[in-house]
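Summary of Year 1 activities. Much of the first year was spent building the evaluation harness for sequence design. The harness presents a backbone, in tokenized form, and records the residue chosen at every position. We chose the following record to illustrate the format because it has been used consistently in internal testing since the harness was completed.
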């Protein structure tokens, strides 16, 4: 078993906290010393109480799923002799209302673009199989109820 840690820090800026007029700007601190500037999504909390230039939890959720998929894809591809030169995924997520009225990230779509140099030995079927295995093994995908769509076109 492994444990992972993050420290989230916020302090009040704004004089009308009880009326919801306060800054949602905060920081995520990780054990390697990395600090990420974060905010509530401007789609949920309007400016000036949020900052669209900072990472919001919904974006981080999409990135975590995409990153996990990519890391498994690369590992599986390497084990199968597929020479990957680059991997880009313009992933997207949808926040929707559930039947119970609560909001949830209901769908994440992965759009991986993979550059392979040994294309003669690498078939589209093999790449699809590697993507399928990556999805099946991704810890983050296995941890959520979100529909994860893999767009391989």
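For this record, the design step produced the sequence shown next.
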């Amino acid at each position: 078993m492994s444990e992972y840690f993050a420290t989230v820090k916020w302090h009040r800026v704004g004089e009308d906290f009880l009326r919801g007029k306060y800054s949602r700007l905060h920081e995520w601190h990780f054990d390697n010393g990395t600090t990420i500037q974060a905010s509530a999504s401007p789609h949920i909390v309007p400016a000036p109480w949020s900052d669209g230039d900072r990472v919001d939890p919904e974006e981080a959720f999409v990135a975590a799923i995409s990153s996990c998929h990519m890391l498994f894809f690369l590992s599986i591809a390497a084990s199968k002799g597929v020479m990957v030169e680059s991997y880009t995924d313009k992933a997207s997520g949808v926040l929707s209302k559930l039947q119970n009225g609560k909001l949830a990230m209901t769908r994440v779509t992965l759009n991986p673009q993979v550059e392979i140099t040994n294309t003669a030995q690498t078939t589209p079927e093999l790449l699809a199989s590697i993507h399928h295995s990556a999805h099946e093994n991704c810890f983050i995908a296995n941890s959520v109820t979100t529909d994860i769509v893999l767009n391989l076109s």
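The domain at 57-150 is CATH 3.30.300.20 (GMP Synthetase; Chain A, domain 3). Quantitative recovery figures across the full test set are reported in Table 2.
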